[in-house]
Amino acid sequence: MGTKIKVIGQNQIGGCVVLISTGQSKICIDFGENLPGQQGKAKRAKINWNEEMVDAVFFTHYHGDHMGRFMEIPAHIPLYMGEAARQVRVNISRALHREDELAVLLDRDRVRCLKAGYTVEMGDIRVTPYLVDHSAYDAYMFLIETPDKRILHTGDFRNHGYRGKALFDVIDKYIVCYGRRPVDILITEGTMMSRMGEKVCSEAKLLGKARELFKDHRYVFLICSSTNLDSLASFYHAAASYGMGMYGNSYVYSQLKTFRETAGKATPFYDFKYAYEARFDFVLPGLGMTQEEFMRKKGFVAVIKGEPGYEKWIERFGDLNPVVVYSMWEGYVEPGNEAFDKGLYDFVEKYHGICMHTSGHAPAEVIGEVIRRVCPREAVIPIHMENGLLFDIAKFPAV
Ligand SMILES: [Zn+2]
Ligand SMILES: [Zn+2]
Q1: Which ligand is in closest contact with the Cα of 157?
Q2: How far is the CA of 76 from the centre of ligand 2 (A)?
Q3: 185 Cα to the center of ligand 2, angstroms
Q4: DSSP string covering 58-120, please?
Q5: How close is the Cα of 323 to the center of ligand 1, in Å?
């Protein structure tokens, strides 16, 4: 029996699940929730775990649309994810007091670590993860080898972040080995294919824009995902260049600490040395002033959510005319968009939020270049996109 590929929720952004099986083994890649705004349109993947007999689930990265439903997976099935990805999920579950999730995530027998370049064997299926650049840290693409097929699953990816330069190198050197090891089937994300109008700015450019803004504004409240390592690093470095530190509640700080202890070990760029837990009344040892007094003196970037609870934070520094920066997907604050979030929109409007963001996904021409370099012998299976069935390689503009 040859290799079989089953895609659930192919034609939607988020919540896509891929099952790959041989006569002997079966693996599942990702098992997440549908993204906001997809309700009604998107299918919630249904898997009958008893019937499917899955040997292991591999998670490309920690975003909710890829990992959000891990608790539904029966306890006998091992879960594979990056070690930093596991820690990021632990921080989330801790903040939400989800003891049941913590029991799973902290179980080393159940959750097994992926390491870039190290192959995991599941019967006759071999899975080799390679790091990719995405708005999540510790994200992977998977090369899946069965007795009769070589399959590349890209996961979510881009190449305009700080870690994006390696994308084509990894494909050329390790996946296709300069054309010597052909891939049969390419499963690629295509988010930006359905958001063609969106401009993509690099993380480096985002840093530049933030630095420009902070020149005149030293008191900044930042609405940004606390798991978006690269964008946090962009704002962190823009702030650091003026001696401003980064602050967040205990949850945000736990994520920054995780990034410091993982990505920060590889490069000081991610060490978040001047990141602190916000405790405004805390008297700083040796300085004889409170944290708030220090923040007022030096300036700051405080990572917040666009929720009423944070109005107190902004009002506390109201006399300093702070600015609010919105650094998340624009669709959430775009009236009429299916993912429109009224509460968030009102919050951003109230404080005249400035939009400054870069996408976690590769634009069409980069997806096109990935297809050209991988040059799959049999098929391209687009997932994580709308109108995937209209996917036409010929439409990709050349890089
Ligand atoms: Zn996704
Ligand atoms: Zn993602």
Answers
A1: 2
A2: 26
A3: 21
A4: E-S-S-HHHHTTGGGS-TTS-EEEEHHHHHHHHHHHHHTT-HHHHHHHT-TTTEEEE-TT--E
A5: 30
Ligand nearest to C-alpha 15 = 1
State how far the Cα of 41 lies from the Cα of 372, in Å rounded to an integer.
31
Question: Where in the chain are all domains bearing CATH 3.40.50?
Answer: 203-355
Q: Is the pTM of this model over 0.85?
A: yes
> How much distance in Å is there from the Cα of 66 to the middle of ligand 1?
6
CATH 3.60.15.10 domain residues, the chain: 4-196+361-395
Per-residue pLDDT tens listing for the chain (399 residues): 799 999 998 888 889 999 999 999 999 999 999 987 766 677 788 999 989 999 999 999 999 999 999 999 999 999 999 999 999 999 999 999 999 999 999 999 999 999 999 999 999 999 999 999 999 999 999 999 999 999 999 999 999 999 999 999 999 999 999 989 999 999 999 998 877 777 789 999 999 999 999 999 999 999 999 999 999 999 999 999 999 999 999 999 999 999 999 999 999 999 999 999 999 999 999 999 999 999 999 999 999 999 999 999 999 999 999 999 999 999 999 999 989 999 999 999 999 999 999 999 999 889 999 999 999 999 999 999 886 555 555 455 444
CA of 70 relative to ligand 1 center, distance in Å: 15
| Class at the top of the CATH hierarchy for domain 203-355 | alpha beta
Instruction: Answer whether 72's CB lies under 8 Å from 104's CB.
Output: no
Distance CA 250, CA 374 (A): 43
What separation in Å is there between the alpha carbon of 80 and the centre of ligand 2? 16
- How far apart are the CA of 241 and the centre of ligand 1, in A? 32
Q: Can you tell me which residue has the tokens 């030293």?
A: 218
The CATH number corresponding to 4-196+361-395 among 3.60.15.10, 3.40.50.2300, 3.20.20.20, 3.40.1190.20 equals 3.60.15.10
Q: How many angstroms separate the CA atoms of 272 and 207, rounded? A: 15
User: How far is Cα 13 from Cα 361, in angstroms, rounded to an integer?
Assistant: 11
Report the separation in Å between the CA atom of 350 and the middle of ligand 2, taken as the mean of its atom positions.
Answer: 29
